[in-house]
Amino acid sequence: MYKLLRTVHLLLGLSCSTFLLMYSVSAVQMAHVDWFSNEETVTQGTAAVSAESALNPRALAQSLMQAGMSGELQNVEADEAGFRFRIVRVGTVHTVSYSAGEPTARLETRVADVMGMMNGLHHMAGFYREQGLTHWWGAFVAFASLALLGLGLTGVYLWFRMHKERLVGGVLLSAGLVIGVGLLVATRLQP
Amino acid sequence: MYTGLFTFTALIIYGLSGLVDSSLPAWSERKAPPTTEQFVEFQAPGDLGDKELADLVYEELDMPLTGPAAEYSLRRDADRNLVVNFYTPNGFRTVTVLERDGRLKIVRSRGGMASFVTGMHGSLLRYAAPRFLTRAWGYYNEAGLWALGFMALSGVALWLGTRPRFVWAQAAFVSGNVVFLTLYWLIR
Q1: Do A89 and B126 touch (CB under 8 A)?
Q2: CB–CB of A148 and B14 under 8 A?
Q3: Contact at 8 Å (CB) between A184 and B14?
Q4: Does residue A46 lie within any of the structural domains?
Q5: Which domain holds residue B180?
Q6: Are A161 and A2 in contact (CB under 8 A)?
Q7: A90, A121, A188 member nearest B116 (Cβ)
């Protein structure tokens, strides 16, 4: 049993070590925003608008996506003067503004740096997004989450089997449980 | 090992939060939590700006787990009343200042355990309300996020130092990295 769980612990940890490191680094970035540059590359441009794609925001977004722009359509605003929307994928935001009657739409593209990209990936989970690739990411988030639970539980078992380490580990585990579970329960009991 | 034992609770919360987020539907399809309404007498001084008034409301109500409202959580409703949102891991408290009536309308939402777990996972010290419980969890959560990175690196180092030729371990490490890097570049 010990050897089996030690191998499971090793394989789970190694298979998602990069995922877990990404979560840790991006969490540190969120916790200490001012430690990082968080730079974006901003480019401006225009795109030709055909008569069909000038009809509504979805039609224009569709034509832009057919021309290679990828992401999810978000923040759609439309009025008599024209429309605005965003096409968003992790780390990249295209803002599109179109004034009614004009032959072109204005584009602004913001591309996040590596830290911004990791921040975006940290917040991406689930299987409800339109882009197929994000479903694969969602699957690995679910796997990494299960792996983290497995690592925790097998880790506690492996520690417990190391008799020499029981005292120090027991104190640390107990302290962590009292602090962590105590704070969770006390917080949840608040009105 | 020691870091993992001490931060065990935080790591379990991270894992559960990931599973919760993995199972949620799109934002538009998520059910809003149940709410309760309450009215409290409150005379708003006439010489305050919105932020100052929101701070006064915060001091007056002294709601658990909340901190002073940020500028972005203030708005005016259709009747031009100030609406202030206070966030807690248990749910939102939306307070409408009914100046003409001389009272506050407090709408409390109480999320389920799933939203509580994800809320606690994201409760960082930087954003913690100035309350003992939120600050203490912020410190514990900070320890957890550093521990996670340390364990990811030390686990690889321990493997390389003890069983580097174990083929299944090599395969797990390589496949995990290939998947991560491939998805990173394809999603970008």
Answers
A1: no
A2: yes
A3: no
A4: yes
A5: 2-24+135-187
A6: yes
A7: A188
Tell me whether B107 touches chain A (CB under 8 Å). no
Among B144, B123, B150, which residue's Cα sits nearest to residue B134? B123
- The count of structural domains within chain A is 2
CB A133 within 8 A of CB B187: yes
Interface touch A23/B4, C-beta < 8 Å: no
Partner B, chain A 92-131, Cβ-Cβ below 8 Å: 92, 117, 121, 125-129, 131
Cα separation, A152 vs B3, whole angstroms: 11
Candidates A113, A129, A135, A112; CA nearest to A74 is A129
- The residue type found at B145 is L
Q: Residue A188 falls within a domain, yes or no?
A: no
- Name the residue among B23, B120, B140 with its Cβ closest to that of A179: B140
Six-digit token pair at A99?
């004034």
| pLDDT tens for the 188 residues of chain B, in order | 788 899 999 999 999 999 998 888 877 788 888 899 999 999 988 888 889 999 999 999 988 899 898 888 899 998 899 999 999 999 999 999 998 899 999 999 999 999 999 999 999 998 888 899 999 999 999 999 999 999 999 999 999 999 999 999 999 999 999 999 998 888 87
